[in-house]
Design a protein that fits this description.
Layout (H helix, E strand, L loop, with lengths): L7 H13 L3 H13 L7 H13 L3 H13 L7 H13 L3 H13 L7 H15 L1 H5 L4 H14 L1
Length: 155
């Protein structure tokens, strides 16, 4: 609670033990701590391993973060094909940021064949779920127009 002394070592231990017992949310929290270096030294390799466990247990947010790390070579060699697979898993699980990042992969042909229509469809999905502002920062007017066209065709 507020004003209480934080016992980070105990939290890490408990999250690790829960993660070892296949508790995906504990793995996600532990991975986030090591990825961000919040309250613990930043350790990208450890965070990737923990995110991988969470993803395997069905935590789509962990799949998304691991997908971006894998795409960008953040703490591991870049592997765009594997990144696209992880982002697709996150997107198929309903994680909108995964869908947006997967759209970028399709748009740029990173890890899978370039497919502007598929990218626009994914951006449209994210725009419907999260608002246009979410995808607007990473798409050109060409893709926004195509996404809006796809949205209007489905309404």
């Amino acid at each position: 609670g507020e004003g209480e002394k934080r016992d980070v070592a105990r939290a890490v231990d408990l999250f690790q033990r829960a993660c070892d017992l296949k508790h995906a949310e504990a793995c996600l929290r532990l991975g986030t701590m090591f990825h961000e270096g919040k309250d613990v030294p930043r350790d990208l390799a450890r965070s990737a391993g923990v995110f991988s466990r969470a993803c395997e247990e069905g935590n789509v947010r962990a799949c998304a973060v691991l997908g971006v790390m894998t795409r960008d070579g953040d703490g591991m060699p870049a592997d765009p094909k594997r990144a696209a697979q992880l982002l697709e898993k996150g997107c198929n699980g309903g994680d909108a940021p995964s869908c947006s990042d997967l759209g970028v992969s399709y748009r740029d042909g990173r890890g899978l064949p370039r497919d502007v229509a598929k990218a626009a469809s994914l951006f449209g999905y994210v725009a419907r779920r999260c608002g246009r502002h979410f995808v607007g920062y990473e798409t050109s007017p060409e893709y926004i127009a195509l996404a809006e066209k796809r949205i209007s065709e489905q309404v």
